[in-house]
Amino acid sequence: MQLLFPQFLWLALLGIIPVALYFFKRRSRSVAVSTLVFFRWLAEEHQDSAWLRRLKRWISFALTMLLFLVPVFLLARLSRSPFDGGVRNVVILLDRSASMAATDAAGTTRFEAARQLIRSRLQALPDQVGVALVAYDSRPHVIEARGTQRRALLAALDALQADPVVGDATAALETARTLARLETPAEIWHVSDRPAPAKPSDAGDDQVGLVPLSVALPDATNVGFTAFQVRKEPMQTARYTAFVQVAANRAASGPVEGRISGQLGDAPLAPRSFQLEPGAVQGLELPLTGVKGQVLKLVLEVPGDALAVDNTLLTTLPDPRPVVAVRVGRKEQVDPYAHLALQSLVEDGELRIWSVQPENWPVADVDVAIFDNWLPEKWPDDLPVVVLNPPGSSGPVRARSLGTAGLPHREIQEVVPGHPVLFRVSSSRVALTQSCVVEPTGPLQPLWSADGEPLLLAGTVKGQRLVVMAFSPRQSERFPMTASFPLLMGNAIYWCAEGRRQEESTGVGNGRTGGLVEVSGGQLRWTTVRGGELTREVESLDGGVAELRRSGVWEDASGKRGTAHLLSREESDVAAAQADGAPGTPVPDSALSLSQMTLTLIALLLGVLVLESLLFHRYALY
Amino acid sequence: MDAMSEEEFFDAGFLDKLRAMFLRLRKRKQLRRRGIQRSPSAGLTREFKDYRHYVRQDDYRSIDWRLYARLERMFVRLYEEVQEFHVHVIVDASASMAQPFGEKRRNALRLAVALSYLGLVSGHRVSLYAMRDRITGLLPAQKGQGNIQRMVEALRNLEFDGATRLRQGLASFRPGRQRYGVIFVLSDLIGQNPDLVDDAVRNMGGWPGESHLIHIFHPWEQSPELEGEVELVDVETGEGRKMWLTRQDLQRYTDSFNAYLRVAERACLSRQVDYLAWRTDGPFDEFFLELLGRGSVLAGKA
After folding, report:
1. In chain A, which residues have their Cβ closer than 8 Å to the Cβ of B229?
2. Does any CB of chain A come closer than 8 Å to the CB of residue B61?
3. Does residue A531 sit in helix, strand or coil?
4. Per the CB < 8 Å rule, is B218 touching A34?
5. Which of A33, A273, A300, A599 pairs as cysteine with A259 (C-beta 3.0–4.6 A)?
6. Superfamily of the domain at A89-218
7. Which residue in A510, A491, A485, A490 sits closest to A500, CA to CA?
8. Distance from A33 to chain B by nearest Cα, in Å?
9. Distance from CA of B161 to the nearest CA of A (A)
10. CATH classification number, A323-497, choose in 3.10.20.30, 3.40.50.880, 3.90.1150.10, 1.10.760.10
11. For B43-62, what is each residue's pLDDT tens digit?
12. For B252-273, how does the pLDDT look when each residue is reduced to its tens digit (9 = 90+)?
């Protein structure tokens, strides 16, 4: 038990008044009457023995004192606390990630609900308890350091809003714990639509309580874009393909139907309908015909969709510069079929192949390195690599050559059919001769295998993509002569160079919100979608680094452009409050016990009033 | 208790009102019931009635010698005998008559003056008494209209204090049997024990003559305007009592008071005592006429 506002205990001195009145025989209003006879008759039924009258007077006195003391304790907020000494420090950890913008049927966002919840809880908090406000999305931000000025904190709270950024509660929780440990006992109010992350073991947390406060919707249906890319069709003019991925939240009540509509420039796109089971993900390809620089807007239309920020995509059609790949290998060991395939790609003008001897390695200003039957001793950490028929091990590649004969395989198994490296590559009736044994360790993922041996592997090593082909085209039957081989080579090069090409060649990078970009000019010009219409806004910057906190296309003063979208499976998976207490059930805590204590005191006060009324009014004591 | 100023209850307007009232009384047919106060027997008053022959038992002093000288026959003169009443006006002089509502004292004194005036004007003997724990005379019996001022003075100087002992007071009163008595008791009937009102009225029933009990009370006493916590102080005994009164309590009080009025009236009726309750907010004229209209012999010669 503790008093949240002990300063109100001074009001208990008012109890001296009834004490004085009791001991100094409170004088009632004196009324002269001709006779007391009739009043005596009136009071005959209340005439009690002397001891009973004294007892009643004591009860009356006790009730009077209670009438004074109960309101005093009400004002002083008598409360139970999880800590012996009471909470001295509260850190409000407020989720302002994209999912907090989900709205209910009345149009109230989760962030607004969180704001109201925080306000109501702050009202029940003693003034001397220090409160800090930490808002987080992808990174924690200390909005208000620990203080007792509620007004400033509430003003800062009002200025906050949910941003279309992925939330990371783990790092924010650590920040909040650091703030909470400044003065203990402390509580962290984690206000979010998601459950709090698991509490790591920490000896110092005995004095820091975590109070999850859920503002999740009671039920929610949401479908959002979770992946997006626009590619120019290789070797085709004015042909692009938009790859989008849509996902339905797991809390959806049933199958969700929707459609994707869009606009390229001024021309509307043919809508695409889809149906998703709860929690399902679906990829869609949207063929586009346009010219570079045209604005592409895609809108997801789903009835009853709770979250709007993941329903719009906005970008411009890219103008890719040719991918520059350097082929490194000894001239006498170069595979002729691979050379032919690369030459066929070069003819389109979108790919430039430089061939160098191993002595000239490393080569600067290239997008992809192709190691043909050769591996460098020092693995390049800043360059994506396509490895053809590795002779040994180097860097992340662990391989052992099988010699000149190789190991023929008459058929292969496709392990990951949907991988971009295998885009439009036929895997049936393919006979290959394995030239080396590659150990599929680390991030390398087998895409093709034969008799349990991986023949084609792909993965990302230290941020750079890597494709390993463990077969010799020249020893393989027919496969180098089919269209699948140059497609495979092209896919491997384009997949490896994907990020570098997007960001460096055209200046338009498909980024995610919450990321940091270097900009110049001190401001960003944003093109966003608001209310279905394109809107241009200007964001002023303090430095040369901007945090992308909007969804749309940005451009700095130098003409550098990029896009930022939420594209988060986690944020689009809008959670719903559940009866089993997982994300949505309020957790009993000290504040609730406080209100229960207040209710108890109010009930006691009313009881005293009723009893006093019965004793004094209905059954006169005197 | 301070004496009341004469102007308070006996101003010129009040006297004029009394005179006008008596004129109206004379005209009232029902109040001209002769025979009630005139005796059929001959008496020794100065009012000559007739002659008759002298018989042996007659007082020879009543022989009209002048008529004997003329007629040489003895006749005795007969005089009309007029019944002379003794009007007793007993005023309750306890403190409750003056406090907390002075209207009771004012009305009692006005009524006492009016009755005295009526008695004196009608040629009766009028005695004034004050009743506290016992009944004491204020003045010797007065007769003649000229004594009204003395009676007014006596009433004006009457002090209201002390407690009323209704039963003892009325039991101590012994009106004379020489004359027919008309006794008016003006009281608020508030004593130490209202349950004894029946015993008190029993004493009145034993008095010779006709008895009237005028019960004077204030409207507040019937329906007090109180609520909440009050300390009630009895003006007669000084006793205090704290109470918390609700509207229901006050309603029960009014019921008790009304029941007490009925008990007093019933007790008077059973003892052939005229009972009349008078709320002080009622007009004096109407009440006085009603009092006389209830068959008082005092109204007969007015």
Report:
1. 28-29, 616, 622
2. no
3. coil
4. yes
5. A273
6. von Willebrand factor, type A domain (3.40.50.410)
7. A510
8. 5
9. 12
10. 3.40.50.880
11. 445 567 788 899 888 888 88
12. 889 888 988 898 888 888 888 8
